[in-house]
Amino acid sequence: MLGMRKKDLQIRTLKINKKIYSEGYSILNFGNASILDQKRETFFIKASGSDIETCVLKNMVEVNLKKFSSDKKKQIKPSVDTIIHLELYKYLKNVNCIIHTHSEYSTIISQSNIEPECFGTTHADYFYGKIPISDKIRIVDKKNYEFQVAQSITKKLKRLNNYCPGILLRDHGLFTWGKTEKDAFNNLVAIEYICKLYFKTKYLIKKPKISKSLSNFHFSRKHGKNKYYGQT
Ligand SMILES: [Zn+2]
Q1: What is the C-alpha to C-alpha distance for residues 187 and 101, in angstroms, rounded to an integer?
Q2: Domain encompassing residue 163
Q3: Which residues place a Cβ less than 5 A from the ion ligand 1?
């Protein structure tokens, strides 16, 4: 039996997984979301291969951040992407929710292997410069594929020096995150929307150009040292 706190975490994990599906950011059994407890010990994630429409509470599987191994005895296996979530939680110390989707525009851009440049202030409110894309995987490590994917993300993040609400997973889709499931979901909505704006803007003009002064200003009023956007 799960304690009250874990039960609550499991319920919230089911809700956020249902939400990304019901709001159209995920189809069939693609995508998954996880929530990590405040002590950063345990997270819950969708079970492997489960169709979110029919998912119930028991399909949200508990994973120990420190002692995870692919435990074959577990009745329900966690998502195949569990190791990616786990490695991201280890790296992103302020993050308690991670969402992975194959949402339309983010996936179009990531499988085009493009790092979208900043064309406007909507983008600048979320990213300093381009939306990052994870490193290319040229030869798959068949025994450790998911760990290899995690590294293709964390290695890229280490080279960035700014607030970053998510990353395009090259040839694949999108990862977003946040302090809470609300933050992570809002980042998913925003990044998918920014990718859509990027795609459509490209139709109108080959090289749109926002000034560095304007894009830097928008980023720093939300995320810079002297940020002043929103309520304190
Ligand atoms: Zn995927």
Answers
A1: 12
A2: 4-223
A3: 173
